[in-house]
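Q: How do we represent a protein-ligand complex in a form that can be generated token by token?
A: Start from the inputs.
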Amino acid sequence: MFSRRKFLKMTGSSLAIVPLTFPIAPVESATKQLPTRPIPSSGEPLPVLGFGQSAAFRKGDLALSTELLDILIEFGGRFVDTGGSSQRVLGQFMNQRNAHGELFLGTNVFSSTEDGILNEIHQAQQAQGKKNLDLVQLRSLADLDRQWSKLLQWKEADLTRYVGFAMSRWNYYEPVMALMETGTVDFIQVNYSMLEPEAADRVLPLAHDKGVAVVINRPFVNGRYFSLVSGRQLPEWAQEFDCDSWAQFSLKYILAHPSVNCVLSETTKPKHAVDNLSAGFGRLPDESTRERMIGLVRSFTKEPG
Ligand SMILES: NC(=O)c1ccc[n+]([C@@H]2O[C@H](COP(=O)([O-])OP(=O)(O)OC[C@H]3O[C@@H](n4cnc5c(N)ncnc54)[C@H](OP(=O)(O)O)[C@@H]3O)[C@@H](O)[C@H]2O)c1
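Then emit the structure tokens for the protein with NAP bound:
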């Protein structure tokens, strides 16, 4: 069974078990809890970093999923993006740890019909063991107005505490912004990073104005970011905002945006989970440093590594 002692061992004194290739402040991270930002529609505090749909969850690998989720909870994290096959293992984890209140699950539903969405909600309730889901995130734009009004009724009937829309493509931005204008959206999930900064133009400011919680996906553009930075030296000035790795460089850039509530990253590796969650501690870059960061990463796209 995973314990705080084992966690400290893994992240600190026992590098032979999980060799870390980056300097982090592990003991401090393990005892401190991630900072939180309030969900605008309720004031409920949400930790600033969470997990995407790891292949470990999708494949139903209970041992690896347990290791990853224990690390998330040790750091004080809560948000896990889920849906479809990845929910079963999360339910198993919460049952074995009695941790239904500790994880905040963002459930993606893909159907575009009332029956289909309701069916996915019922399957999620069963798999997760949560009668009242934390968050249902629509994924389909088809017949959106009608499906959204049904979703609001199901929220009213306590099938879910929050409702939102999850997307990662710019052609979804306009219809989702129109939805945000209704003032009924609790959450959006959207792609945003130094390599995909477009959401900062209009989506993130509108979310801020309308009191919508923002969860960010694709912080590493599904790994493409690492193929750009790999083998390169982290600049010394990254220390000015307590950044110890290229992963943290991206996550801290995103977290410094004032509209962002929580950033999701996806990993199958416990040492990467520790690296990513460590980005929640210490200082964040100011606006002029963020300009410098994006300039640096853009220069990598133009020159060979
Ligand atoms: N709603 C939507 O339309 C949508 C679309 C895309 C994504 N999402 C959500 O957002 C989540 C994250 O986005 P994403 O899938 O694009 O993944 P991502 O988090 O941008 O990148 C994941 C990749 O980065 C690697 N990685 C993670 N941490 C690392 C670290 N510290 N050092 C080195 N490599 C590291 C992972 O490999 P390892 O396994 O080796 O660590 C994996 O290859 C998804 O899981 C999903 O939940 C939603």
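Confidence is low (pLDDT under 50) at residues 1-29. The first helix runs from residue 4 to 13.
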